[in-house]
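ARCHIVE CARD
SHELF: 3
SLOT: left
DATA:
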Amino acid sequence: MVVDRLPGVLVNTLHSCGDLRGENVVLFDQRDYGDFPFVQDNYSVSRRDVLRGIHGDRQTFKVITCLSGTIVFVVVDCRVHGGHFGEFMMLELSGENKKQVVVPPGFGNAHLVTSDQAIFHYKLSSHYDQASQFTYTWDDPRFAIPWPITHPILSDRDSVRG
């Protein structure tokens, strides 16, 4: 079920200023998010129709930003015992709208690139550990996410039903 808000998920708009030279954007200011012990920053570059996720783990906070291009971003509550399993939020993130999302532990996230190319940045509160990851397929019927695509470009990990 799609919802406007999920408990623990925060959506923020980045601070920016500009002049004739261009723009300066504050990508992360701890005062906006609290005292998370972030340890790793990653980014991925993908082309139109690439869909990544639904991925997550039960220990990591993630701060998600689309630096360039446009994506459809989905956060899914994957906490089996939290009372909200399967509820999700869907929003557009782009280099232009400067929206940023904090994804708490136990939530999965996925994104679909809707521009020619997009740069997806994520800040992590714990180091990536493949063994602790969970994955749901992008079209898992328990979630019924209304993706605006029927044949996305997927990795092997995102294609296999588990």
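SLOT: right
DATA:
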Amino acid sequence: MKVLVDTSVWSLALRHKKPSNKVHKLSELIISALVVMIGPIRQELLSGVSEENAFLELKSKLKAFDDFNITTQDYETAAGFLNLCRKQGIQGSHIDFLICAIAHNNNLLIYSTDMDFENYEKYLPIKLFRESTDRS
């Protein structure tokens, strides 16, 4: 099953010199061609790099991943998910709910270090990628 990798996992891989288990798992997913990239995550990653040469290098590396097509249905589902979670007292960003919607609508797993996704999973029909149990 393909995996929509959240900014938090990418950032972990890009920041740390000493790879963690999450970074190793991301590498495995990349090698297996199971990683899904969306434009908003690409934008978040690139927005975090202010030095021009580093920006250009990251931009070049990320070109290896095509942007997954985001549809009107994804945006509508995201809005519905946000409203549903808000009724339950769960707050989150618009991008988080867009990630949830894209994953749900396209049968993707979500890989994140952001614990908010654990809360979303209680109320939304999403599936999280857990490196300890998933064998992609």
